[in-house]
């Protein structure tokens, strides 16, 4: 069964089309990973789906109902974790959850029960009486997530929930997302950390410049580029000149330079290891060279020409 269906969505800001005829479906019970570089349109898509902004055209159905016509009912069954942490600093963790639970119509014993369950679920039971000002970034994030979970939404939408937090909290969050899925919740998960998608997503949608450019399971996406070879090269002194020379080798599709390291993607069968080595040696010393199997990161690179690591920020 489909939990959400976005068809032919267009959203413009001024003259630029931020979402350009986007089609996305979310199946019940899946964790759909939404990947895309900066400015791809992920947040705009998520905010459209959560009913926070109106699209210019297209149709959005959530729980089989037209979104804008049934906005308040649908919103009450969605949990949105925004990119920015939105908790009240002058309320304790428990009071924050009571507030958000109240907004969603929970009252009395039911509210109390859900607040306690949610605090336990995100591992903040022992911090229930503290103000978030005393929390680490990761704990604040977990509280933020808890606020979106307290009303037991059927669909949870998360916009990069693990950016800028410690590894322990990140693992806790990923583990919690798996548990939510096991309990039957559907999750749309946006991130630029490929390894997170690889770890938890049932299916992946890749966006770039307002378009969906690929979708499938991680295995399916990697399978699509199995016809490519990747040579990893490290030299003593990398230069743009070397990158240009590598790019000229027959069969080379793409060269990505990161300082002294180069990833060279070629068509399969081009046997470019030797040629890459020769070119690299002609410009200086070679530290290491090897052929690697493509990963989801390479799928992303091949599709968008961009690396998600551009914005690695923790
Ligand atoms: N309110 C707005 N007014 C004008 N332009 C906007 C607005 N919101 C987003 N944009 C533009 O739309 C494009 C897509 O932005 P969006 O935030 O959806 O991308 P994103 O994929 O979520 O990127 P990021 O990973 O950086 O959050 C960007 O070029 C952005 O500048």
TrEMBL record:
One of its GO terms (molecular function) is ATP binding. Residues 4-234 form the ABC transporter domain. Gene3D superfamilies: P-loop containing nucleotide triphosphate hydrolases (3.40.50.300). SUPFAM superfamilies: P-loop containing nucleoside triphosphate hydrolases. Keywords: ATP-binding, Nucleotide-binding, Transport. PROSITE patterns: ABC_TRANSPORTER_1, ABC_TRANSPORTER_2. Pfam families: ABC_tran, DrrA1-3_C. The keyword Transport applies. The keyword Transport applies. It comes from the Bacteria. This is ABC-2 type transport system ATP-binding protein. The lineage of its organism: Bacteria, Bacillati, Bacillota, Bacilli, Bacillales.
